Amino acid sequence: MRLTPLRQAMLAFLAAQRMPVSLEMIAQADGIRGQCDATTVYRTQALFKAADIVRQVGTPGKVSLFLLNVPGESGQFLVCRRCGCIKELALPGQTLESVRRAVVAQGFSPSGQDCEVYGVCPTCSAGSQSQAPSSKLLR
Ligand SMILES: [Zn+2]
Questions:
Q1: pLDDT of 58-71, one tens digit each?
Q2: Which CATH number is 22's domain given?
Q3: Hey, which end of the chain has fewer CB within 10 Å, N or C?
Q4: Which SS3 state, helix, strand or coil, does residue 110 take?
Q5: Is residue 118 assigned to a domain?
Q6: What is residue 23's predicted lDDT score, i.e. its pLDDT?
Q7: What average pLDDT is seen over the chain?
Q8: Could you tell me the distance, in angstroms and rounded to a whole number, from the CA of residue 110 to the centre of ligand 1?
Q9: Ligand 1 centre and the CA of 103: distance in Å?
Q10: CB-side exposure of 8: number of CA atoms within 13 Å?
């Protein structure tokens, strides 16, 4: 892959992020903003993904987010199915090691240990609970 100044700027931006970022955030980053259109940003991320340079984290029915793949570093995230927010999930090393052992015991060679847990965040969860009493009042 040819490393153009634009791709270099995208990699630099991604390298500085701890959390997955959207295509819009990448497009607005220094060295990228005003240098290319949204299609180029999308195509470049697709290229990075195909080359295993970035990992795509999907938020259901929402935008796709991208995160740089760092060898030896695994990223665990909680993804809300309702609002699409993402939180980092810190798992103890021994938990990750247990998962790795279970995977290897199946004769599987893991290439990485990324984990995304989908569910409902506390904010959305609280929102649906506060709606419940009002619907009861209508009965
Ligand atoms: Zn939510």
A1: 777 667 889 998 87
A2: 3.30.1490.190
A3: C
A4: coil
A5: yes
A6: 93
A7: 85
A8: 30
A9: 31
A10: 5
| Interval between CA 119 and ligand 1 midpoint (Å) | 8
Q: How far apart are CA 36 and CA 14, in angstroms?
A: 17
Q: Please check whether residue 110 lies inside any domain of the structure.
A: yes
Q: Choose the weakest-confidence range: 30-34, 84-88, 127-131.
A: 127-131
Query: Does residue 137 form part of some domain?
Result: no
Specify if 135 maps to a domain. no
The full DSSP string for 36-89 is S-HHHHHHHHHHHHHTTSEEEEE-TTS-EEEEE--TT---EEEEETTT--EEE-
The domain in which residue 118 lies consists of: 5-122
pLDDT tens column, 91-115: 888 888 898 899 999 999 887 778 8
CB count within 10 Å of CB 2 equals: 4
Q: In total, how many domains does the chain have?
A: 1
pLDDT in tens, 4-37: 999 999 999 999 998 899 999 999 999 999 999 9
